[in-house]
Sequence to fold (140 residues):
Amino acid sequence: MKHLLWISALLVVLALPSAVYGEQDPCALAVKSSAMFGINTGGWQQVIPGVTGKHIYVCNVVFSGYATSGGFTMTFAGSSSGCSSNFTFLGNLSPNNNVVVNAGGGSSTQFTVPANDSFCISSTGSGTVYSSGWVAYVQR
Fold:
């Protein structure tokens, strides 16, 4: 009886990711692609182009940067217009200057971009903002 309870509990735990994604977390199981980015001005940059009928699952974002006077903020969004408008806000980070940020370890989804949309990054700050990094993702 004791073993039956443990098996039941294990099956419930294994089913949790399926309830969220309809299957296992894409970042946990699928082969990942990567894209580099470099941002030296304000505005939005398309990092991963959208594909018709496919979501982008962002598994990891690694970047560093600085603003010439003060700090900076990196903003992440999906866009159905190639990063020129129609944004779906996904999140932002405001690190200190010259610090390497590793958002996510790669084995779980950090952001899910809506189907058909591109993954976009914007940097804002005081003075000129410089930032570069890479994104690991699954697109399906």
About this structure: The CA atoms of residues 64 and 100 lie 4 Å apart.
